[in-house]
Amino acid sequence: SQYFVHIGDVVTRGQVIAALGNTGMSTGPHLHYEILVHAKPVDPLHYFIVDSFPSVRVAMNHRK
């Protein structure tokens, strides 16, 4: 696993945020991420489809 952004960073569409990895109790390489708006999770699908959303501030929980 490798992270390219940190908590509080603003990210834009197309920006690489992390590399796949296999840490903790996972059974294979994957990337877990969340999009939070005002500290509440939102459906990330909207950020892949609609171009009118603002940049997203990153909030990550790094597990080892």
Task: Indicate the topology.
Blueprint: E1 2-3, E2 10-11, E3 18-19, E4 35-37, E5 40-42, H1 45-49, E6 56-57
Antiparallel strand pairs: 1-3, 2-6, 4-5
Please provide a written account of the structure.
By secondary structure, this protein is mainly β. It has one domain (1-64). Helices cover 8% and strands 22% of the residues. The protein contains one helix and six strands; from the N terminus they run βββββαβ. The protein has one helix at 45-49; strands spanning 2-3, 10-11, 18-19, 35-37, 40-42, 56-57. The strands form three sheets. A two-stranded antiparallel ribbon has the order 1-3. A two-stranded antiparallel sheet has the order 2-6. The chain starts with a strand and ends in a 7-residue tail after the last strand. The model is unreliable at 59-64 (pLDDT under 50).
Structural class: mainly beta
Q: What's the oligomerization state?
A: single chain
Helix/strand order:
EEEEEHE
Tally of separate helices? 1
Strand order of the largest sheet: 1-3
What is the straight-line distance between the termini? 10 Å
Kindly state the mean pLDDT as a whole number? 73
Q: Evaluate the radius of gyration.
A: 12 Å
Tally of domains:
1
- Percentage beta strand: 15-25%
Q: Give the total of beta strands.
A: 6
Main features:
64 residues, mainly beta, two-stranded antiparallel ribbon, 1 helix, 8% helix, globular, Dup_hybrid_motif, metalloendopeptidase activity
